[in-house]
User: What shape does this take?
Amino acid sequence: MLIAPCTPNFINKLANGHGDDILSLICLAFDKKIYVAPAMNPKMWENKITQDSINKLSNAGIEMLGTGYGTHACGEVGYGRMIDPKMILEKITASSKISHITGKKILITAGPTREPIDPVRFISNYSSGKMGIAIANAAALMGANVDLIIGPTNEIVPKKINVSKIETSQQMNDEVESKIAATDIYISTAAISDYTPVNYSQTKYKKKKETLQIEFKRGQDILKKISQTYPHIFCVGFAAETDELIKNAQTKLEKKNLDMIVANIANHDLGLGFESDYNEVTIVTGDNIRNFPEERKTDLAFKIVDFISEEYFKKSSFQRKNA
Assistant: This one.
């Protein structure tokens, strides 16, 4: 079922399970895929209530097709315009086509880790887990068996995904190790701490001095270890960079012996990356560089997973041919 255009009123109604007209009643009884093409004023689109409803619908398995950017009938400029009908058709076709990952076992890590310093403090990062959850949801909707290992986050994970919650990088490592053997594709979107405190203080650090020195040690590289130990597994890394995006992504691809790197510029000023609902990424493989322009993470995830599916098929076909 496709609802296009879909007003903010109906989006909020659908998200809260209302059934006071024929369309909402049909949606409540419909047991097949529902696609929604939102159309509204930019301020309505940005409203937190609307965004919460959109996330709620996405987590319920309803596919939000995103909005376009431009001038509206009211004269305002921004997101909220219904996307072009041709793009609607392309998105529906892409998400409903037979995927090479159908039935495959995919292990995904997401969110941050917290490395304790003392009983009340820890070192962490801005990762929200939104991109990883969106990737997991897209992969599940495309027929994969998904396990998600996620760090501390307030985001809601769709019920159809198997979830393991962790806090520290060591816990992340232990969970990955316990699940990796049966995995076909490993996607590391998690922002795992690069450094951990050398010593944990059993008591709280007191505010006695003007400066405080805490020694850190380099943490283990889980993704690199997995790619080297299990060369048959298709390994995908994510990299948030502040400069030299392509160069740094290519370096990590080779150094960690990965099949693919999904890289993005972490920029809070642009409203992209960590904590944002939007992202712009560049995918780097051994023989390809593909840019995906700014888009809502829940929509972008389908394109990333579709790309992973195609690259995985190429690698697995090559392995079978040379077996």
Q: What stands out?
A: The first strand starts at residue 2 and ends at 6.
